[in-house]
Write a structure and sequence with these properties.
Layout (H helix, E strand, L loop, with lengths): L10 H16 L6 E2 L11 E2 L4 E3 L1 E6 L2 E8 L4 E5 L5 E3 L6 E2 L4 E5 L2 E7 L14 E2 H12 L13 E3 L20 E3 L5 E2 L2 H14 L13 E3 L3 E6 L9 E7 L4 E7 L11 E5 L5 E9 L4 E2 L10 E9 L8 E7 L3 E9 L4 E2 L5 E4 L5 E10 L2 E5 L8 E3 L3
Parallel strand pairs: 10-15
Antiparallel strand pairs: 1-2, 3-29, 4-24, 5-18, 5-23, 6-17, 7-9, 8-16, 9-10, 11-14, 12-13, 16-17, 18-22, 19-20, 19-23, 20-22, 21-22, 24-28, 25-26, 26-27, 27-28
Length: 389
């Protein structure tokens, strides 16, 4: 064959070069010893350089740091429930407790009651049965009004003839003259309860008629803080008037959905507040529905869940960035290597590879921050082992 100006490579060298190239492209470190096919037996093979790292002695911990925001939690809207003109509104930041006037419509007060459900029908005639009646009774009793006795749950009562016929879902469960079995969540609008309603109406400045209509009350789970007012005096009372939050300050955070399982209600954390103070905190709630990060809509994209944390003490600031330290498992003074130094053995388990290609079987311990705890015969601090990077 004519000369091309250079020596032809042997098949063994060509194969070795190809294997090295494939290994590099795949991102895997492979130690290959190549030898010229024409080299005499016993000639030492040329070793391809590999990346190594020393076994280190260190502390490993699965604790992590999250970022959150101090505030009053997620706001909820408060809507007006009847026709009219808004004549009074609260100020942002105002705390509203039971019986506080949330706003006025045509100058009539609309007070705040706690619990549920909201008023979904007119409460007028004695004998009306339902959870809404129980909500009114509970609030009036909490305000100190005498509401009279109620039949025990499980008692059958006959509705008076003047009781309006039941409507689907209104909770009365029967028409006039029918018997009703009281549930634990029900109450009956008795004459004594109607009298309590009238006394309360007189005290708060409402029309004293013993009747409660839709829009006469705002019903929320508990005390609230006015976050923002979206209406102005003179607006129609129908629609959103304001947004409210809980009254206690909380820290909220968004975490990767994949790591949400490590946080549960009651988990203790440490909070570094905006002013630099460190406070203990407790996870109060972890959302059960994941949402796309930054509103992304790509299928399979990153997901996150919301976490709410209660600080152990009240912070002076109403808002700001918070550092959340989540404790984890800790191993001190252990031997560790980067995770990518581990080799999975065909027969099971793991090993570390020395630069001379010998393998050291190891047992793995804690994985943290890209490192893994290792134990095994022959391991020592500073021992060089092969790694992929």
């Amino acid at each position: 064959m004519p000369s091309t100006g250079g020596r032809l490579r042997s098949p063994a060298r060509i194969v070795a070069a190809v294997l090295v190239a494939v290994a590099v492209l795949a991102g895997t470190v492979v130690v290959i010893r190549s030898r010229d096919a024409g080299a005499p037996p016993g000639t030492r093979a040329a070793t391809i350089p590999v990346a190594t790292v020393g076994v280190s002695r260190t502390d490993l911990s699965t604790s992590r740091t999250l970022h959150g925001t101090l505030g009053y939690g997620m706001p909820r809207a408060v809507k007006g429930g009847r026709e009219g003109v808004v004549t009074s509104l609260p100020r942002p930041g105002q705390v509203m407790r039971r019986n506080a006037v949330m706003y006025r419509v045509n100058d009539d007060p609309v007070p705040l009651f706690f619990g549920g459900p909201p008023l979904y029908r007119t409460l007028e005639r004695p004998g009306t049965v339902g959870r809404d009646v129980a909500m009114v009774r509970t609030n009036l009793r909490s305000l100190g009004y005498a509401t009279g006795e109620q039949p025990r749950p499980g008692t059958e009562v006959r509705l008076p003839a003047e009781t309006p016929a039941a409507k689907p879902g209104d909770g009365s469960a029967a028409g006039p003259g029918r018997r009703v079995t009281l549930r634990a969540c029900d109450a009956i609008l008795t004459p004594a309860l109607v009298r309590a309603v009238k006394r309360w109406q007189s005290d708060v400045g409402m029309t004293v008629d013993g009747v409660l209509e839709l829009g006469d009350l705002v019903v929320l789970p508990g005390p609230v803080r006015v976050a923002a007012v979206s209406a102005v005096v003179g607006d129609s009372a129908v629609g959103e008037l304001m947004s409210v939050t809980q009254t206690a300050k909380v820290v909220t955070s968004q975490i990767d959905a994949a790591g949400a399982g490590s946080l549960r209600r009651g988990t203790k954390v440490t909070l570094r507040m905006p002013d630099g103070a460190e406070l203990p905190g407790t996870v109060g709630a972890v959302a059960t529905v994941a949402t796309p990060v930054d509103g992304g809509q790509e299928p399979g994209g990153a997901q996150q869940v919301g976490v709410t944390i209660q600080p152990a003490a009240t912070a002076d600031l109403d808002g700001g960035d918070v550092e959340i330290k989540v404790p984890g498992e800790t191993r001190r003074d252990v031997l560790a290597v980067p995770v990518n130094a581990l080799l999975a053995l065909r027969e099971g388990g793991y090993a570390l590879q020395r630069p001379d290609e010998t393998l050291l079987p190891v047992e793995t311990g804690l994985f943290a921050m890209g490192m893994v705890e290792v134990t095994g015969a022959g391991l020592r601090e500073g021992l060089a082992v092969v790694t992929t990077s």
